From TrEMBL:
Residues 20-158 form the Formylmethanofuran dehydrogenase subunit E domain. Keywords: GTP-binding, Nucleotide-binding. The keyword Calcium does not apply. The keyword Nucleotide-binding applies. This is Formylmethanofuran dehydrogenase subunit E region. GO terms for molecular function: GTP binding. It comes from the Bacteria. Pfam families: FmdE (PF02663). PANTHER family: DEHYDROGENASE, DEHYDROGENASE-RELATED.
Length: 207
């Protein structure tokens, strides 16, 4: 089965997304669509730097954590740049903030969709049996992906109105150098012991 993606931006993101994510599954493409929808609602491009902030309500230890990789790909909000934070609610939802315009939108996967998928989706059945996504037959994975890529957005997501949101990034600190290992440690994470500066691992402190 060939995947047909009409929106050229979504098609490009899908290709990069699968490469980045590592396997074919429906949750990552759902994240792509949700991230694109959030960006369109806010009228913003992918984040080049910290003009957007992503507060992801996903967490660990649940079936559909893959969602966040798609949201990161579509919004340009990434862990590395520091404009993505996980809230560990183990929910399939996120808030995307336009830091410059002080606006935000929340997108959540609809409970009805999840309920239906848990009961009827062959891909989800296999996942519930504990089969890792990369071991599921490609035809089954592709069918699940096709479905989430072509479903009307209102059947997949609850999308909030755009609302006011004031977000301030924590200040970045200057570089310091650890007395023990000599490595650089930035700002607020440098620790002082007997008047000397250490990184956290060398300091013996927990944080
Ligand atoms: Zn996945
Ligand atoms: Zn050190």
């Amino acid at each position: 089965m060939a995947l047909e993606i009409k929106d050229p931006e979504l098609a490009e993101m899908f290709a990069h997304g699968v490469y980045f994510h590592g396997h074919l599954c429906p949750a990552m493409p759902m994240g792509l669509r949700a991230g694109l929808i959030a960006r369109k609602r806010l009228g913003v491009e992918r984040a080049k730097s910290k003009e957007l902030m992503l507060l992801s309500e996903t967490g660990t230890g649940h079936l559909m954590q893959c969602f966040l990789d798609g949201v990161m790909m579509a919004t340009g909000c990434t862990y590395g740049k520091g404009n993505c934070q996980k809230l560990y609610y183990n929910k399939m939802a996120f808030v995307l903030i336009d830091v410059v315009e002080e606006k935000a939108v929340r997108v959540a996967v609809r409970a009805e969709f999840i309920k239906h998928a848990l009961e009827h989706s062959p891909f989800m059945k296999k996942r519930q049996e504990g089969i890792p996504p990369e071991m599921i037959e490609p035809e089954i994975a592709e069918a699940a992906v096709n479905k989430v890529l072509t479903m009307p957005e209102e059947e997949l997501f609850n999308i909030s109105d755009v609302y006011d949101y004031h977000y301030v990034y924590a200040q970045e600190g200057p570089p310091e150098f650890c007395t023990s290992c000599g490595e650089v440690v930035f700002g607020s994470k440098a620790r002082v012991k007997k008047g000397k500066i250490y990184c956290i691992p060398c300091s013996g402190y927990k944080d």
